[in-house]
Amino acid sequence: MYIFAHLKHFLLLLLVVGVLGGCGYRPSAKSARSVLGERISTSVTISSQDPENTVIIKDAVDLAIVEVFHASLVPKKFADTHLYLQLSEPKYTPLQYNNNGYIISYRATITLHITRESNDIKKKYTTIGSYDFAVEPNAVLTDKERFDAIKYSSIKAISAFVAKVSAEGISQ
């Protein structure tokens, strides 16, 4: 009976490994890396209206490259791919009002325009990210709330870019 129980677990493990291996599963980061390469460089166009947000976008993009793509950040001359990023002006849309008519929650939406240059290929992407957040009634948006909203909506826009690039890697 003891041997039969171990044999049953072994066969179940073998079945799971066979199904995952046989279905062609491949992590999205690996698919994206096949498009972008192992070494990536980035540059962000500085917005004259909102230069502080440029730093937030640059940090979010660099973090995504390291964490999601598992790629190395390198200077442009050593890169397999260079990403040019441009941030549209953030838009804040009221989502919810309280009983007195004051806004108590907003949605921040940003659009990222990304140009990917790899070898002789130049491709443009546009992604949108949004983030919902609450505010005190009749209050002005603080810099912290604004920066956090831009940061989190940028991360969502970058995730959308990752999904687009991963889809390209799967079709190759």
Short description:
This protein has helices at about 1-20, 30-35, 50-70, 145-170; strands spanning about 40-45, 70-75, 80-85, 90-95, 105-120, 120-135. The chain is α/β, with parallel strands linked by helices and about 170 residues long.
Can you tell me about this structure?
It is built from 4 helices and 6 strands. The radius of gyration is 22 Å and the shape is flat. It is an alpha/beta fold. The termini are far apart. Strands 1, 2, 3, 4, 5 and 6 form a 6-stranded mixed beta sheet that branches. Helix 2 (28-36) packs across helix 4 and helix 3 (51-69) packs parallel to helix 4.
Query: What level of helicity do the residues show?
Result: 40-55%
Shape: flat
Order of helices and strands: HHEHEEEEEH
Coarse structural class? alpha/beta
CATH level-four homologous superfamily name: Lipoprotein like domain
The CATH class assignment is Alpha Beta
The number of helices is: 4
Approximately what portion of the residues adopt beta-strand conformation? 25-35%
Radius of gyration: 22 Å
> Based on DSSP secondary structure assignment, what is the total number of beta strands?
6
The main sheet comes to: 6 strands, mixed
Give the low-pLDDT segments: none
By CATH, the topology is: Double Stranded RNA Binding Domain
Give the domain tally: 1
Distance between the first and last residues' Cα: 49 Å
Just name the CATH architecture. 2-Layer Sandwich
Mean pLDDT: 80
Task: Please supply descriptive tags for the structure shown above.
single chain; 172 residues; alpha/beta; six-stranded mixed β-sheet; flat; Double Stranded RNA Binding Domain
